[in-house]
Design goal:
Layout (H helix, E strand, L loop, with lengths): L3 H25 L9 E6 L2 E3 L3 E9 L7 E4 L4 E6 L10 E8 L6 E9 L2 E2 L3 E6 L3 E3 L11 E2 L4 E6 L6 E8 L4 E7 L16 E6 L5 E5 L8 E5 L4 E9 L9 E7 L3 E6 L2 E2 L4 E9 L6 E5 L7 E8 L5 E9 L4 E3 L12 E2 L4 E6 L7 E7 L4 E7 L9 E6 L5 E5 L2 E2 L3 E2 L3 E6 L4 E9 L9 E8 L3 E6 L3 E4 L4 E11 L6 E6 L5 E5 L1 E2 L6 E8 L6 E12 L5 E7 L1 E8 L3 E6 L3 E5 L5 E7 L2 E4 L4 E10 L7 E4 L2 E3 L2 E4 L6 E3 L7 E2 L5 E8 L6 E6 L2 E5 L5 E5 L3 E5 L3
Parallel strand pairs: 2-9, 10-12, 11-13, 21-25, 26-28, 27-29, 38-47, 39-49, 51-62
Antiparallel strand pairs: 1-3, 3-6, 4-7, 5-6, 7-8, 7-9, 12-19, 13-18, 14-17, 14-19, 15-16, 15-18, 20-22, 22-23, 24-25, 28-37, 29-36, 30-35, 30-37, 31-32, 31-36, 33-34, 38-40, 40-44, 41-43, 41-45, 42-44, 45-46, 45-49, 47-48, 50-52, 52-58, 53-57, 53-60, 54-55, 56-58, 59-62, 60-61
């Protein structure tokens, strides 16, 4: 829940702390001369399906010469409009987005490729209804902007105390849905220090408040209201704390159609037709629909526009695709060990906590030492459930419990991993809401499986920026699960022309990270492409196993106070552009062998671009404020910072890195390690240049 007074205090302290940090940073940090664009907003932020919409992209740093557009998903394309009057620094760009009539509604990621590299990601919303752009001053009821419904209203909470009023007509007995996206369009912006906390208020002609909503989807509101009589009404839009920012864009979809938040059951099987009950607002008299999912649909969370009885399709709705044997929660009470619904593991259970205080229990048989993993999928697909999972024995004793779990990101859903049965017998997995709430929107999917070794894979970045003759590094991190302990071999596909890759591995020991080194040929042309990185488990003899995972890219962001955060995105873009601040990075020797306790010297030489005399930091890892974000060194091997000459100032081009193996360093053979030169963009972000491959071997003691 959001504490408003606390939010104000937090905003105030963030501003003061950030300003103090900024003054300090400007005094001590020498920044790069070349910057990739950081998208801050798209306006209007909505794009109508079946139409072409012209939008303005605003960014920090230069987008001039932009030549390619990347948009997540299918059915939406973008065309860059050449500026009528080119500027030396183009921080605004006009884009024509064309959305197919059947394009999936909802949020898409947008990126542009420029001669200075691929931009960070911005976001647009694909909507069904005509777009109405906020125009002029309409900060009072008397000056309210008239709109015709249905519509997707787009505007900006552009400054503190900004209020927008819209005037519309409603028929007698009609129910309207006001779905606002604002904070959710900002929480993935790379360089936006604060996000909005929007509120919607519905007023009658006298100005009296009829309804209001603040936080339904994260900080974004969803207002549903039935109008008792025909007339003119007003919608008030503002930040809940009267804050504002030039980049706080919003989209409000207003219509009288069903608004579907979820379905029950919440899963479907590939290749099968499922009968689903709609969960949401303003639903049809028969709130059930049929959905057939292709047989080759991958498992996981998907979004579908479901067929409605009137022949139309719904808004985008989350549905889980699973191959687990299907189980539907049985009717009646099963809240205790004695009344628990029996299931056979593995199983995928679709359930719902129908009323406040409800608890669901499922009984399963286990052998002594048998290992199980249980996971709830609910909050991740718009369910109101904030789950708690418990494993109980016949006496009701708690053997395991989980509220929230973390893998790549933190989840409000629950997961109990690799629980081992202490003895043969029957046990119960219990599902409840942490606040003992319930209702139609408290749907869940319970995955009950025997534990099988597996892993997740992420990339520390969402873009790699190259110039002809330069190199870059992609760090990958493994999240080992359910007993997996082995190494992982990395691979990459989809590189742009003129770019090659050397793929390393993630060792079974160490930081859980490995790297891929990219190299652009000296004659590589401008170009950009989205790549895919996979990891494959390797046995002790180096043989590839059948266990694989595709890496999820993460985009870094500059958090208040100077922290470096991450959020998952759907693309990693490799681009080749104009010459950058550094032309080359070289070093010697190309390979070192270390005995435990031994040190070796690496001599590094950089070639600066014309006129570039800012600080350059040499390293073998990606680090910020003492925390490692990319480190493929063998366990027990580190750079001796005190003995190294790693900061090159002014015209300096030569440095030294001292590599030291601890007395207990783990053995490793030819581990790929990047030799890096970092140039600061701001206090958090860096332009990182990589040299040719470097290999580190650690011999047994």
């Amino acid at each position: 829940m959001c504490n408003k007074s606390g939010l104000n205090c937090m905003r105030s302290s963030i501003i003061h702390f950030s300003c103090a940090c900024l003054v300090s940073m400007l005094c001590i940090t020498a920044h790069a001369d070349t910057f990739y664009p950081m998208i801050l907003s798209v306006s209007p932020v909505a794009v109508q399906a079946g139409q072409t919409t012209e939008c303005e992209i605003a960014s920090r740093y230069d987008m001039s010469g932009a030549y390619q557009v990347f948009i997540t998903g299918d059915g939406v394309t973008g065309e860059i409009v050449a500026p009528k009057t080119p500027k030396p620094m183009q921080d605004k760009l006009t884009m024509r987005f064309k959305a197919a009539p059947d394009a999936l509604l909802g949020v898409r990621g947008v990126r542009v490729a420029t001669p200075r590299g691929a931009s960070t990601l911005g976001q647009i919303v694909v909507v069904r209804d005509p777009i109405v752009a906020s125009a002029g001053d309409h900060s009072t009821i008397k000056t309210a902007q008239p709109i015709t419904l249905p519509a997707a209203v787009c505007g900006t909470i552009s400054k503190p105390e900004k209020v927008d009023f819209y005037k519309f007509s409603a028929a007698d007995g009609v129910t309207l849905t006001f779905h606002m996206r604002c904070q959710r369009l900002q929480n993935k912006i790379h360089d936006l220090q604060e996000t909005a906390d929007p509120i919607l208020m519905l007023r009658n002609a006298d100005g009296s408040v009829l309804a209001a909503d603040d936080n339904t989807f994260a900080a974004d509101p969803l207002l549903v209201y039935r109008f008792a009589k025909a007339g003119e009404y007003y919608l008030e839009v503002r930040d809940a704390t009267y804050a504002g920012d030039a980049y706080w864009v919003y989209s409000i979809e207003i219509n009288d159609r069903p608004f579907v938040m979820n379905v029950y059951p919440s899963r479907v099987s590939p290749g099968a037709t499922a009968r689903l009950r709609l969960v949401g607002h303003n639903l049809p008299a028969d709130p059930t629909v049929a959905l057939t999912v292709p047989a080759d649909a991958p498992e996981g969370l998907h979004w579908f526009m479901l067929p409605l009885p009137n022949g139309e399709r719904s808004n985008a709705v989350p549905v889980i695709v699973s191959k687990l044997p299907e189980v539907i929660e049985a009717a009646g009470d099963h809240a205790t060990y004695a009344t628990a619904q029996p299931i056979a593991v593995p199983a995928g259970v679709s359930g719902r906590l129908d009323k406040d205080g409800e608890v669901d229990c499922y009984a399963f048989d286990a052998k002594a030492g048998e290992s199980f993993t249980f996971e709830i999928v609910a909050n991740r697909h718009q369910s109101e459930l904030d789950s708690v999972l418990r494993v109980l024995d016949a006496k009701g004793n708690k053997l395991a419990e989980n509220d929230d779990f973390t893998d790549i990101v933190a989840h409000a859903d629950s997961r109990i991993e690799s629980w081992a049965a202490p003895a043969a017998g029957r046990y119960v997995i219990e599902v409840r809401d942490i606040h003992l709430r319930g209702g139609p929107r408290f749907v869940y999917f319970l995955k009950a499986t025997r534990s099988q070794p597996n892993f997740l894979l992420t990339l520390d970045s969402d873009k790699s920026i190259l110039a002809p003759g330069t190199g870059a590094v992609i760090f990958a991190r493994v999240y080992r699960r359910e007993g997996f302990t082995g190494p992982v071999q990395l691979s990459v596909e989809g590189l742009p022309r003129g770019v090659t890759a050397t793929c390393g591995r993630i060792l079974e020991s160490g930081k859980g990270e490995g790297c891929i080194l990219l190299q652009a040929a000296a004659n590589a042309l401008h170009g950009a492409a989205n790549i895919r990185v996979h990891g494959t488990a390797v046995d002790k003899d180096g043989k590839l196993l059948e266990l694989t995972a595709e890496a999820r890219p993460l985009q870094e962001f500059y958090s208040p106070g100077g922290g470096r955060g991450h959020f998952p995105v759907e693309m990693h873009t490799v681009s080749v552009g104009d010459p950058l601040d550094l032309k080359t990075v070289h070093f010697s020797p190309k390979e070192v062998t270390l005995k435990p306790g031994e040190s070796k010297t690496i001599e590094v030489v950089i070639e600066r671009g014309p006129g570039f005399n800012k600080n350059v930091t040499l390293s073998l890892i990606m680090q910020h404020l003492g925390q490692d974000y990319g480190n493929s060194l063998p366990a027990g091997v580190a750079v001796n910072d005190a003995a190294s000459q790693s900061t090159l100032t002014g015209e300096q081009t030569k440095g030294v890195l001292i590599l030291k193996a601890a007395a207990d360093a783990k053995p490793a053979t030819k581990q790929l390690v990047p030799v890096l030169a970092h140039v600061s963009i701001n206090f958090v972000m860096k332009s990182t240049y990589a040299a040719e491959p470097f290999y580190v071997t650690v011999t047994p003691p």
